Amino acid sequence: xxxxxxxxxxxxxxxxxxxxxxxxxxxxxxxxxxxxxxxxxxxxxxxxxxxxxxxxxxxxxxxxxxxxxxxxxxxxxxxxxxxxxxxxxxxxxxxxxxxxxxxxxxxxxxxxxxxxxxxxxxxxxxxxxxxxxxxxxxxxxxxxxxxxxxxxxxxxxxxxxxxxxxxxxxxxxxxxxxxxxx
Length: 182
Description:
- With 182 residues, the protein is mainly beta.
- It has helices at 22-26, 33-47, and strands spanning 4-5, 8-9, 57-62, 65-71, 74-76, 80-89, 93-101, 108-114, 119-123, 126-134, 139-148, 158-166, 169-181.
- It has two domains: 8-47, no CATH class; 57-181, Immunoglobulin-like, CATH 2.60.40.3670.
- It has two helices and 13 strands; from the N terminus they run E-E-H-H-E-E-E-E-E-E-E-E-E-E-E.
């Protein structure tokens, strides 16, 4: 039931939806200095890259092959990312296998891998992707697109290893660390 005062509806007699009150209607909200400071600090941190968005870094390892991995060092939950793995053969390889250690891809979704592997499997703690013969001097390039699942379990980061194998023989490996922010 509504009460009339000077031709207006008495707001106190109305029921408001959850989370709203008379102060929302009367406009009693004021921006405080602290709120403005926090918003400004977050915007500056984002602009200078403290919240992710850095360009990818390339790590290299040499052994029986030259292995290069290009990946972003800082990611945010839910963010899509790209990893490029390049293997330059210093000798003929009978069956190039790229291995990604299981902890590196924990709580991640891998959307695309180009080219597709001839065989995929898991052995000795590595997701293994076999691509067949690579001649001496050839460069093989493997592109992986993924996404960090938006869960709190990866906050802080993840780490693992990306390795190159000739069938089951490990040729070289690179430790990979990715910092994960909310």
